[in-house]
Amino acid sequence: MFIETRGNDGIKPKRVNFSFAILNPSASFGGLYVPEKLPKLDKEFFEKSQNKSYKEITKEILQKFEIDIDEKTIDEAISLYDKFDDDKNPVPLCKIEEDLYINELYHGPTRAFKDMALQPFGYILSDLAKKQGQDYLILAATSGDTGPAVLDTFSNKDNIKVACMYPDGGTSDVQRLQMVTQSGKNLQVLGIVGNFDDAQNTLKSLLSSPTFKNELQKQNIKLSAANSVNFGRIIFQIIYHIYGYMSLLKQKKVDEFYDIIPSGNFGNALGAYYAKKMGLPIKKILIASNINNILSDLINTGVYDLRDRKLLKTTSPAMDILISSNVERVLYDKFGAIRCKELMDDLKEKRYYKLTSDELKNLQKDFAAIYSDDKFAKETIKKYADKGYIMDPHTATTLCAYENLREENLPAIACSTAEWTKFAPTMLNAIKNDNLTYNDETALSEFSKALHVEIPKSISDLFSQKISHKKVVEKKDIEEEILNFIKG
Ligand SMILES: *Cc1c(COP(=O)(O)O)cnc(C)c1O
Q1: Is residue 258, in this structure, part of any structural domain at all?
Q2: Which of 24, 100, 162, 301 has the highest local Cβ count within 10 Å?
Q3: Average pLDDT over all residues of the chain
């Protein structure tokens, strides 16, 4: 069963099952759903699981959560990992230093780790909607990786419509093409004039617009969400941390390890935190930020402060986030609902909150954090490319954590969250050590020739595919556009 991070308001149910929590992810007082308790994994589980496939381990862990989804649906959801490069091992673990292993989470259809959760989650959500005969609208605002993964998983699914907004000019060409070439009839993709914040704010104002809500009611369409506030995504983000450790055990005996996470909305890190609580022997979760370092400030100082902060554009755009939603679930887990609500209310009213020194110590038992800038990312990309390993700019931030945050000489597993092909201009800037502006198509081709790496067909094909969504609209016109879309 699932309960609420900010306590119960007396209107919403106090405890809900998994399917309720994923269909209606907004809990009392704007809080989030969290599992009432986590299953425990003992030594025997890890010993027994070493030779199991990713799909087998996923199924076992989902069963331990005792969620109200039938076995057939789970099997079908998990079978979507067959769409990954290697269906036997969707998440290869690659050793790049004596003590550093990269957990490559980007081998799915849209080449970013969002597929790890969105592929099976999308299947389960649309299956539930279909069985209930209820239509749902998913609204998504994306800075580049969520949009393609959400559209891919829901394309042509019954009872689901998706309206996805991206900042025009704010994503890479590849990311934009991954969205606007989607041809599913149930999908709407809109460029908006503005940046990612504008896209997100537009989405928020839609959610509170009476005309919008009225029309949804008239059409009998409910709203759900596919960002990582939805626990249906988090549950699948626990598993690859566990599987990464299983893969490491095959290479050497390891009693404890550091788990390094390039973080934005903190969904990936939360998955690691839950895995640790379930018994995965993570010494500490090392959080890597870019110069939008609000998370590393929180973990180092106990203060989450939005005052005088502006979102800065970096070469790791998926981590350009100031409001990191999933931190709330950790605050709830550590300090309880009353305190969690207090902190979240402070954030809303005063735009900052401050943990007590005991609370900070408690947080630091599980987390350490550091940030790095674009220069570090470029140098790191170049350094490893010269050694024969290619990592994207988000993954590069984890090296700063690896180099500075390990207190003991234990091995580390770093999550690699995207393939280089999504950020080819930055990759080419890094290896050529220049600051020229390249378009994605040129950069992809130059980089792949220089480094002798292949471009997956799903990426190279994008440039010749038909564009299905051409609209770029002003913020004020979004509501009308989406209303026209849901009216069919
Ligand atoms: C989404 C994303 C992240 C951030 O993950 P969170 O779970 O939001 O912290 C990091 N890197 C890439 C490439 C992403 O797409």
Answers
A1: yes
A2: 162
A3: 96
